[in-house]
Every structure is written in C-alpha cells, then in structure tokens.
Amino acid sequence: MTVDALRVVSPGPLSTIQDLGRPGYQRFGVSVSGAADRYALRLGNLLVGNDERGAAIEVTIGGAEFEFTSPAIFAITGADLSPTLNGTSIALWETVSAAAGDRLSLMSPAGPDSGLRAYLSVSGGFDAPPVLGSRSTHIGARLGGIEGRVLEPDDGIPTGPVTNAVRPGRRVPQDLLPQYGGDIVARVVPGPQDDLFDSDATATFYNSAYTVSDKSDRVGSRLEGPQVPAIDGAHDIISDGVLSGAIQIPGDAQPIILLADRQTTGGYAKIGVIASVDLALVAQASPGATVRFERISAEDASALARDRIATLRDISFDGPASGTVQGNDLRREYDLQIDGSGYRVEITSGVDGGQTIARVNGVEYVVHVHPGE
Questions:
Q1: 157 touches 56 (CB < 8 A)
Q2: Peptide bond preceding 129: is omega within 30 degrees of 0, i.e. cis?
Q3: Are residues 98 and 141 in the same domain?
C-alpha cells in the first residue's frame, strides 16, 4: 500500500521526479532521461535504504518547499541548495527524520561552487506510476513522473512501504562526496568523429577553458569559448546514435555536452564523450562555471566506471544503521551512557495524534520539539 507522504508547497523553477531512467527504448526514439546527477541519486537512495534505482525528486536551483504528510526518513544529496527543516538548517548527504507537518525548504545555492541540482530521497521511494519501466519525468515527451510534467503546488506524491527504515544521522563518508565547483576538469574519451577535426582544432579543444552558458538545460550543457572548427566546416554528419556525455560540435563550433534528456540521435560531429564518472560534475555546473577537458583512453574510462560501481556496491555509511517501523510510526532505539549509567531510549514519531513519544528505561515521556532550539 502507498500513502501520500509529501505535498508540494512550492516546486521552484524546476522540480521533477527522476530515477536512473528508461534504457532500452532509444531505437523507438525514447530518451533515457533520468537524474542529471546519477551518482547523487544513487547515494541518496542507498542512504535511506532504497534500491539505488529508486525515484527521487530532482530540484534545480532551489525555491522549492515540501510538506511531509506522514513521518519519514529522508536525505538531501547533490547540490547544496541551503536546505532547512522547519526553518532550521540540515546536513546534506545524511539521513534526517521528519514528522507529519514538517516543512522542508531548498532555497538557493549556498555558493557559486555548490552545484545546481539537489535530490530529495525518502525511505520507501516515491511511487509515481512507472512508464516503460521508469518513473523518470521527460518533460518534452510527457513521460513518467506525475503526468509527464514538472511538479506543481499541492501535488501529493506517494511513497512505497518502508520495510527497513534507517536511523537519522547516517552519513556518506567524506571521501565519497563529489567535489562540485566552478572550475571543472572533465575527462574525455576521443571519438566517434574526432577524425573530422584537425590537430589545431583538437589542441584548441583540449587546451582551452570553456564557460557554461545560461542556455544550458537537462538536454545539454552549452559551452562558450574558443571555436573548434571541423575540417572544411563539415560539422553536419549523417545522424547516428548519441549517448549522455557525448560532446557535439555544431556549426557555430561551440561544444555542447549532452545530458539526461538528450535526443536519441544527432547529426553533429562528436569530438569525444565525457567519462561517466565525471558527467555529474558537468550536470552540476552552473552558468558561468569553467570546464576544461582532459583526454583519456576508453580503457581508463571503463576502469573508473567499474571502480565507481564497486564503491557503491560495497559502501559502508557512517553513523547509525537502522531502526524499525510499525504502521505509520517510525521508531528509533538508542543505548546511551550518561555519567556511567546505561539508558535504553526508544523514540517513536506519529503516535497519539502526531506526538513524539520517548521511553527511557521503560518510562514514557512526551517530547516537544521546537525548531531552532
């Protein structure tokens, strides 16, 4: 059974439901879509005990507010959009508990190097109807999410049943946190049409800094900088298949890095493809950020991808591991040592009209939580 666990108060300029996308349908002209920052989405899902392929809410730039309509454990990963719960700042890359009626706000990037897109993952996952095997929203095709559109005020978003809830305070280890920034070095595998660019154009591409344009979106990151002309101006090719991370060089000789909502085929020459482990850095680059390119081999890119997969498969989080769930109530248990004495503390949210109950060594107390204290 699913329940509406989140109400959209304000979606900001662009908030959508995304998972890892719908591969396997490009031959029918259907884009893969999915999260622009797949690494952040995967980590968010794993943090809250979901399958890494589960659906989350992707919030771009900020200006979004959500109300929890039932107790929940959630995490914010990806960009630092200054998240608060009931007006109090909360940590990113860490599980947080919410009671019914709590309000989560993601306001704006904390700084120029904070990233562009944040992911809200909830234990149980968001349960929008799957389309072609995915809940991802592709706005242009009106597929997935809620009626194939961006989130709107008063949308109620259901979550799946929570079977193994995690405790608040579970954290991604520091060495696994991505380093978003305003000066990015993205590794590139040359091809498939790098032979259409002479040595001077190739040198320009790899030795220059490009600026992310404000015309960028989920389809592609448009760059501005030194031109990369094709031999004899032959930027147009017979359309062939494209993939996320492909770097097209159209007639204006300015690179475009294709992202999650890219088309399935393209007729511009592609000088290279961003290594998958670096694509999230590009997707998180705000307009004005600088991108530089570094050539690597396909074998090196594959090794980096395999290492990333192994890291996610064997990940061990810092902090508390798990709690238990009974009905709509979230129960967390702690063993405390205070002045040499042991205390067993159980905290249950969502009972007795939404109150939080604490039982300390069998004695029951009602807990009143005041934001900001």
A1: no
A2: no
A3: yes
